[in-house]
Amino acid sequence: MRAAFASSFNDADPLAGLTVGDAPEPTPLDGWAVVDVRASALNHHDLWSLRGVGLREDQLPMILGCDAAGIGPDGAEVVVYPVVFTEKGDFSILSEHYQGTVAERVTVPAYNLVPKPAELSFAEAACLPTAWLTAYRMLTTRGRLEADGSVLVQGAGGGVATAAVLLAKALGARVYATSRDAAKRERIEALGATAYDSGARLPERVDVVIETVGEATFEHSMKCAKPGGRIVVSGATSGHLPKVNLRRMFALQLEILGSSMGSPEELADLMTLLAKTGVRPVIDSVVPFSDARAAFEKLHSGDIFGKVVLDHTA
């Protein structure tokens, strides 16, 4: 079958290790199922894999991709939940220990198949399992956002951040977002947030801060959280060792909460929310699977706003 996979590692030029070509058909384990992929979505995790982060040489070739939607073995339309748990209780996402989704077919545990609502296209559904599920859990399960609450999203423009803006609006919150890029601030305002330059003073302190930037914005995040506020962290693209003002933390009883991915049940709840509200993922571009390398090149360029999706029917 046709697939896009890491055949070698290159930290300076990750695309040098990308191969698009024939790969072995998936062989399902006991209790696993094969999905005919109709659409997959790329993540920066794929570029890190091509750099060798989280993979070993003896695991190559490794099919890339965490996100997919397609047709299950019974003919039903499904979304692939990308986290695989082991008997030891640990877990990994697809393309780390198990082959990924940028292929004609992928095999996963049967419990990883989540029914796709008819209201969502395959391309839209393929955007959800990683970035959108992460944002949904950050706002709801971890952030405990209420309908009349307020949210600050740091670093608007990234996949999780963009999802958080749209989901927070769908959940009825007042949403503020920051970016150093004026063009991204303009685009994020079009999604319903009030946008500010990084570090700017907000008109109010917020209930929940969505933090994926890390060191560069963390002090601002703490200053923007109201008493009892939650700073929910799922990334640290600018550095993972910020200074933390402990006096502010205990005086205002702030919570700093880690968050990563979500559960199959949360993925189902997320899709129900989108089906009911009409909110849809921001898609930068849909690229034919026959031109998969171009999709990776677009992701690597950084000149995107929203998800890069591969249409596996083209």
Structure at a glance:
This protein has 314 residues and is of the alpha/beta class. The protein has helices at 44-51, 122-126, 128-142, 159-170, 182-190, 218-224, 246-251, 264-277, 292-301, and strands at 2-6, 18-22, 32-41, 62-63, 67-71, 77-80, 83-85, 91-93, 105-109, 113-115, 150-153, 174-178, 194-196, 206-211, 225-233, 255-258, 283-288, 307-311. The chain is 27% helix and 28% strand.
Task: Outline the structure in words.
This protein is an alpha/beta fold and 314 residues long. The protein contains nine helices and 18 strands. The strands form four sheets. Strands 3, 5, 6, 9, 10, 17 and 18 form a seven-stranded mixed beta sheet that branches. The protein has a six-stranded parallel beta sheet with strand order 13-12-11-14-15-16, sandwiched between helices. Helix 3 (128-142) crosses helix 4.
Structural class: alpha/beta
Supply the number of helical segments. 9
SSE order = EEEHEEEEEEEHHEHEHEEHEHEHEHE
Categorize the overall geometry: globular
Helix share bin = 25-40%
The largest sheet, given as strand count, sense and whether it forms a barrel, is: 7 strands, mixed
How many whole angstroms does the radius of gyration measure? 19 Å
Quote the average pLDDT.
Answer: 95
- Distance from first to last alpha carbon: 15 Å
Query: What is the number of beta strands?
Result: 18
Q: Uncertain spans, ≥5 residues at pLDDT below 50?
A: none
Strand content: 25-35%
